[in-house]
Amino acid sequence: MFRVASIPALSVIGEKRLFPVNRIFCVGRNYADHAKEMGVEVDREAPFYFLKAASAIVHSGAAIAYPPGTSNYHYEMEFVVAIGAPASNVPVEGAMDAVLGYACGLDMTRRDLQLDARAKGRPWDIGKNFEQSAVITPIVLKAAFGAIGPQRISLAVDGTEKQNARLSDLIWSVEELISHLSRYYHLVPGDLIYTGTPAGVGPVVAGNQITGAIDGLPPISLGITTAPAA
Questions:
Q1: Which of 121, 182, 218, 229 is geometrically suited to a Cys-Cys bond with 137, CB 3.0 to 4.6 A?
Q2: pTM over 0.90
């Protein structure tokens, strides 16, 4: 008999219900300074995406092993949107009706593999979509968080700050992302959107402790344990 994998689920603060994760959409280069540090131009014609499997979910506070196949393992701190109502071909003006709430997330990345794939014009899956690469906190309801704007987003490694920006620095707003995605996918409750990372991404090694924060959300943390055997 094959074991049926359980569906990862997130806590929703203030509620007894859980949020079963369906899909994870990740937005590329959604902060201008991050695009610059990656050596590419900002694409202002339309946002672009890559996906992670729901099985990549890791709850904040976990300690995980350095992943196989890479020698350049990076953190990316992100503002995450949790979809709570169906959305298909919705206008920007009505896009927020689909939002349940928000969370802090880490898009962990095998940067060397991503850049190698990018240089060859190949998909990024091997650098982005792997086990334990989507770290996330419990969800804060939209009404409790309030309007998206000047909230600070930051990340530190072993207490040293590496990333520091504002949600107002997003190139494509949450409303624009939902509206655009809903032209190509039927968004449903359980979908997550990782909205992109600010400048300051960088490597971590075994023994590092990553901590991140967004004003109004629970802080996120992740420990990196010993590297796997060669």
A1: 218
A2: yes
